[in-house]
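User: I'm preparing a small set of examples for a lab meeting where we compare how different chains pack in three dimensions. I only have the primary sequence for this one, and I'd like the structure in token form so I can line it up with the others. Please keep the answer compact; I'll paste it straight into my notes.
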Amino acid sequence: MASPAGNVLRAGTQIALRTSEALTTEGKKLRVGQRVQLEVAEAVMLNGQTVIPLGSPVTGEITDVRNKGMWGKSGRINGRILYVRANGNQIRLTGTFDDKGVTGTAGVVAAIAFVPVAGFFTTGTSAKIPLGASVTAFLDEDISVAFAAPAAPPPVAAPALAAPAAALAAPTAPAAPAQATRTSLVDPSLEITATN
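Assistant: Understood. Below is the structure token output for the 196-residue chain.
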């Protein structure tokens, strides 16, 4: 079944993400090709309907890692966004994330000026991407969306009113004047009037 023209989420649509794990070059554990987890930070809507819910899992991949080192070399992390899983579908995404530690170049230059060997021992800082860091991704393909037709509300049946047996018998004495009382049901917006 083809989607109407207005029910297409176009390639290039921006999607706000956040990291689901902290990433760092500290400890030298990150590797190129390693998969990392992110999540959708804002639901993606189309025509008032949610297409990609908040919190949908996103998979990224580390593309470059450099650990901090001697002579003021800083750490670096580069990665790319691969896809999001939403409503049982895997949707391709594009986008990158990165961080670069602070170089120790100024310290190296100063150290070399005073003690040439000291520059060898001066290192930069590790790269760090904290948990919950903002990342921007984009749809890598057009997504056709077929929304389910809204369900019709069930028909409301009128309650059958049964005449009390006492009302069918001929009265032997004049009836007392009817007195109206209000009885509140569970739903406070509904009220009925009963006669005694």
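A couple of notes for your slides: Confidence is low (pLDDT under 50) at residues 104-115, 117-121, 180-196. The first strand starts at residue 8 and ends at 9.

User: Perfect, thanks.
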